[in-house]
Design brief:
The structure is a homotetramer. Chain A is an alpha/beta fold. Chain A contains twelve helices and nine strands. Chain A folds into two domains: about 160 residues, Rossmann fold; about 120 residues, Orthogonal Bundle (N-(1-d-carboxylethyl)-l-norvaline Dehydrogenase, domain 2), CATH 1.10.1040.10. In chain A, helix 5 links the parallel strand 5 and strand 6. Chains A and B meet through strand 9, helix 8, helix 9, helix 10 and helix 11 of A and strand 9, helix 8, helix 9, helix 10 and helix 11 of B.
């Protein structure tokens, strides 16, 4: 019989993950800070819980996917949080992008309550979440992973078991750094050619015939050329993730010069934007001020 | 009848280009500063010239592909250079990576002698050069491009006509910036995970399942994991190209923060290496000093 | 009559501040995590408390000067912390370098207990602390400042009332950024001339005849030339402060490119050092590996 | 008897240097690309030459102080340049800020004509030039310096003999890097405090009580607070000098992360300004777009 699943966080990633869990036949209980985000999932059969604690009480596998470390602290350790209602023998799957240390603390807290813990941040974007093709970067015990594989397989095609708790977030932060700096690289190249009077499309064409072509640059490059930045991977989240990567590197004594430089670009754009945009909007750093607030 | 071709520069790129020109049936005259680099081409039927001027005198299409702006200045304007022997009605195809301004000067000089000029820097690396799958970034007249397409097709599969002379190098410099910063991004991600105790192979695996995957990262990532840096795209040339991109950007007033940061990384590694290495050796910036001189 | 003073934190700054408070005739109660750091102050008449709470219970003015935000959280909010024993009507003077937000939280907590709060981070280094010539960057009510001026004057010559709580730390973080990047600038200039074969002393001489001369560069420049980095302002603390400045800037959307670049240099050096050093040891980023661990 | 002096270049620095040479009683011949810049010097007794060659023909000591390497190449090696008219036994004093290598070439050319050569770039700004308080960074033979000391003393108070030709420009480029990054540091600190709502004057006040205080920051800090950027040290020249410093560092394999980051800031501002401004206008990088073109 399929395990009952709880899902905490119904954002750009969590929402389609929930839809896929329902589609796969899991009994699903959901919670989101803004409850209405779950309306259609409820219409499709999900139960709505009033608190994360209630989700935990109703689930064998509890998945959390929220925006940042304070949000994870709140949904796990808050007064009405997961740890206030966790069922012994359950598994907590933490899929937010946070620090390795926070996951280690959460794993210890889960163990103290007789539960198992897996960190499983994801990559693949909203598109991957919708198609059920997410990739999970897993840290934790192999046996715990084994237990939740049926659940993961409802949402994604692949998972990498990267080591003990902490290894997943380390790789996740490194991956986001890679994605962000790759997009920064294209934005810089684009700024150079367009300021020199060469159409940006030319750069995109050549890039797509080069060794540097990636699905990410296909997608984000096209967004930059159109100047349309509907959030797929929101800039505010990438800004946060890059900050977490730099913090981790600074604890470890690892210099990250290009990531540090690019973080300040994201930062300037974040400070100037008036609405939620995709992180590829970092290209507006070079744009006419008309598209920026200040 | 196929045009007679002259080829000046038999380095990592020029040498396989010469082999492909011969294979395609062109009568070929070659010159290289270190003449012995052309021995096998001569054995395959190429004529060896004593000077670039001699190459020009023997050729309808003269291709130059040398290491940097001073080398281009020397082979074109030197006492025994191309412009000292250019045949009226011939075409000069300049495939080195240099500045847009240098190409404009060369185009004017060619025109003054009744010749045509095309800038046609390439991407694709030694692998592409050997397979005849180079991509040309062309600046110049469409009619000139038309004339030399049969020659280009012996060496590459695709060419992009990007605009007047200068547009080709602009895109080429932007592309090399993109490639370099993409590799820097992977190197930073790799430094982060390995210092945190996670195997680099894990990062490579996840990258290859992600939107950020590119043929370039497949290739350079594997080199970094092995720590083997046999030059495919030499670091000293990428260092030069990134400098040219930054110079162009600085003339245009375009800030390139991540490229600037990464150039200093390349620079530190260049200052510390004792032998010729691939530019992916920028990863040794984070290595134990044992693999570096200082 | 002089107010009774409590002093929590007897590090490089706190210790000489305590000595000056005793010299000025204040009844002084001290606490430090490593108690023995206070032995000589006790010998000079200070009382030793077992906990920060005990300090608070014995003092009209409680000064805290510890290493970082977690340390401030611990000495203020910990089980045996200041807020567990604060006397109504007392004043808390928080002189650590932390975030504006942490000071605002502390101010609110003090107010809730009927006490007043002043943030008063300092500049001037150990030298200034010993000579009683510190400069205080004060945020809080003017009336609160008025009350503690007699205490401040025992430790420093000047104080700037910069605005409400938060303004002091904002200026303090900005000042440390300025000091750090100024020293980075000298270290880069020094690396350039010495690698070019010009003696570093020449740069120091010219700097001292230039508009760029500062007491800081006189001091740190001499340390770099000698390669002696006895901690005056420890690198680990400057690394922390620069991180706090970058965090604040990233909340505000203010890009700080040179500070970000220099933080990564500090970071690399911190990761490679085996002992506690002054932040001017950032110059070893350019040194032969012999002086670095890795 | 005082040597006859030629002065080539009557810009912000050269012009007041010429006035001081006249005041000191030297017979002076001047040339400037825009001749009218010398009108008042001619009114005070200087002779006006039609070409740099004519200056050389009339002078025992020929001083050149022009804007950049191409300008030095032109006034020295041009058809009507200094080397076309240099008197045997004369001394060329090259005071522009250029590369060490260019000075070495110039020294060799002077020697080939039986003349002596001294590089002597200056620091002190227009203020120092007007007061006759420049500092010269000298590279060349001690005996040559000895010969021209009477001339230098008309324009400056101090000179440092830093080594053979090349050492002077090396230190000069390093010094300008130091000055520029120091001002960048203040601008970043200022951006941080003002965005946080603290008046910039507070930062200036605290800076002036700190170890980081320098005459440069007194001057440039005040300009930034007023938002008035009348060129004393023009941004376009500092941008050029920082580029030369980075080029030299990149030849030597010395990474300069903060200088590289700051160069891109200068660059962005240069690309956006519509008029000639002081380099302290780098602070407008953080300004509302109203003060910038784009």
């Amino acid at each position: 019989m399929k395990p009952t699943v709880g899902l905490i966080g119904l954002g750009l990633m969590g929402h389609p993950m929930g839809a896929n869990l329902l589609k796969a036949g899991h009994e699903l209980t959901v919670w989101n800070r803004t409850a209405s985000r779950g309306d259609d999932l409820v219409a499709q059969g999900a139960k709505r819980a009033a608190t994360p604690r209630e989700v935990a009480g109703a689930s064998e596998v509890v998945i959390t996917i929220v925006s940042d470390p304070p949000a994870v602290e709140s949904v796990l350790w808050g007064e009405s949080g997961v740890f206030a209602g966790l069922r012994p023998g359950s598994v907590v799957v933490e899929s937010s992008t946070v620090t390795p240390n926070l996951e280690k603390r959460a794993a210890a807290a889960a163990a103290a309550q007789g539960s198992e813990f897996l960190e499983a941040p994801v990559t693949g974007g909203t598109w991957g979440a919708e198609k059920g093709e997410l990739v999970f970067m897993v840290g934790g015990e192999a046996s715990t992973l084994k237990r939740v594989e049926p659940v993961l397989s409802a949402m994604g095609k692949r998972w990498f078991h990267l080591g003990p708790v902490g290894a997943g977030q380390t790789v996740k932060l490194a991956m986001n750094l890679l994605l962000e700096v790759q997009v920064e690289a294209f934005a810089e190249a684009l700024a150079l050619v367009t300021r020199a009077g060469v159409p940006g499309q030319s750069l995109l064409d050549v890039m797509q015939s080069s060794m540097g072509r990636s699905p990410l640059l296909d997608l984000k490059g096209a967004m930059m050329l159109k100047g349309e930045y509907k959030p797929s991977f929101p800039l505010r989240l990438m800004h946060k993730d890059l900050g977490l990567a730099l913090d981790l590197a600074n604890q470890l004594g690892v210099p990250l010069p290009a990531a540090a430089a690019s973080r300040e670009v994201l930062n300037a754009v974040k400070g100037a934007m008036t609405e939620d945009v995709d992180f590829s909007a970092l290209a507006t750093f070079w744009a006419k001020p008309s598209v920026r607030k200040a």
